[in-house]
Write a structure and sequence with these properties.
2 domains; mainly beta; 25 strands; 4-stranded antiparallel sheet; 6-stranded mixed sheet
């Protein structure tokens, strides 16, 4: 039987919820001189501070279409700050540590996995056969442990790149951890040599009965890009010229995360499309999901893909019988927290000022306590320079009301 909280949330989402383009960018599509009446309560008019309900601007019309969840509930809103960590996660010149996985706990210690490489990034202007073309190029997956989540000890290599000729021989990176039935699974992004701008990224998997390994790697990728796009010309360094763009994930599948959900395994991922465009919301980046009966697959892409029209790194967690998702960086719905009662049909629950990059969630948190409880602390990465990134911590807090600096008091107040 559904919980009262789930039932209420579904009703809120069903009645009156409109596409986000009307919520955030309705001025592009709504006639500001329309005489269409909006039937609203005096309470809502007062809450929104609308001067004259008979003279509504386009912005006021959009606001009046917000649901009660969006208007009155700030449980999904948070603010954040980042901070330096200690030990091996302190910045180290010449070393890239980035894209931390979620945090799990085993035998009293926190564990995380991440992309690690050395050396500067030269780009495609150098010799791609020798040089690094991106900071995440020529990476292996390493792991570290911590007693307190602050001081981290690097434990070494977890999953290496493949042998020459393998689908993952160039780089393995952007990993995520899943613990299920006493087994541990690392899904990750892969690149095969030679690295050029048209190379297609895939997703690999490794598993172990211990977070310390050893890890067994899948011999083939568990997910690949759609194959229905067509490049224009044969310039391997031109990723924008196409005869047909294909599906939202026709070029790359990125940032995988597997979540056990409703007796199956939902593999959420970021798709990049051949001939990627810049739209009114920025880069044309969307998320998808593939579903399997077994952690090792086979994974079948949902016919409802894409399941977002914005986003970058995948950041998802179970909440209230559904799946929550933090959408950041790219697209018209960036910097929103969304929720889907079925793990597929996501609606906006909150909008935030910003969020940490490449979040490593704290999977030890009680994610049912509050919608964003799992975000109270975790890991992120930061660019010290373009060449070198390091792993930092972040904290968030729910904000119920705005507090100005003068409300907090100051030690040295100026005299009148």
């Amino acid at each position: 039987m559904e919980s009262l909280k789930t039932t209420r949330m579904k009703k809120i989402l069903f009645f009156g919820f409109i596409p986000v383009l009307l919520l955030a960018f309705g001025a592009c599509t709504m006639n500001t001189t329309s005489n269409k009446n909006v039937d609203v309560s005096e309470e809502r008019i007062d809450f929104l501070g609308i001067t004259n309900k008979d003279k509504l601007s386009a912005a006021s019309k959009r606001a009046l279409q917000w649901t009660d969840q969006q208007l009155y509930n700030n449980d999904w809103y948070f603010e954040y700050k980042v901070y330096d960590l200690k030990g091996d996660f302190a910045f180290e010149e010449g070393v890239v540590r980035r894209d931390p996985s979620a945090i799990i706990k085993h035998d009293g210690k926190y564990y995380t996995w991440y992309s690690r490489s050395t050396g500067e990034t030269v780009g495609f202007g150098g010799n791609p056969e020798v040089d690094k073309v991106f900071p995440w190029d020529r990476c292996d997956i390493w792991y570290a442990t911590s007693e307190d989540g602050i001081t981290w000890k690097e434990q070494g290599l977890a999953v290496p790149r493949g042998e020459a000729g393998a689908y993952d021989d160039r780089s393995v990176f952007t990993t995520e951890i899943m613990e299920h039935d006493g087994m541990y699974y690392l899904c990750y992004q892969t690149v095969k040599s030679p690295y050029n701008k048209r190379v297609k990224n895939q997703i690999g998997l490794a598993w172990s009965n211990s977070p310390d390994g050893p890890w067994t790697k899948s011999q083939e990728p568990i997910l690949s890009p759609a194959d229905n796009g067509v490049w224009k010309g044969d310039d391997l360094q031109d990723r924008h010229s196409v005869l047909k763009k294909g599906d939202f994930d026709s070029h790359k599948v990125h940032d995988p995360c597997i979540v056990p959900y409703k007796g199956k395994f939902y593999l959420y991922y970021k798709g990049e499309q051949m001939g990627e465009a810049i739209t009114f919301g920025g880069r044309q980046i969307r998320h998808g999901v593939a579903i399997a009966d077994n952690p090792k697959g086979p994974y079948l892409k949902s016919p409802y893909n894409p399941i977002s029209n914005s986003g970058h790194e995948i950041c998802v967690w179970p909440y209230n019988g559904g799946i929550a998702s933090l959408i950041t960086t790219d697209g018209p719905e960036r910097n929103t927290v969304q929720w889907a009662p079925d793990g597929i049909n996501f609606e906006i629950m909150g909008a935030v000022k910003g969020a940490p990059h490449a979040i490593g969630l704290n999977r030890t948190a009680d994610n049912e306590k509050e919608p964003t409880e799992i975000l109270r602390w975790g890991l992120t990465h930061q660019y010290k320079t373009y060449n070198y990134q390091y792993i930092r911590g972040f904290k968030t807090e729910v904000r119920r009301k705005h507090t100005a600096s003068s409300d907090k008091g100051t030690k040295d107040k100026k005299k009148e």
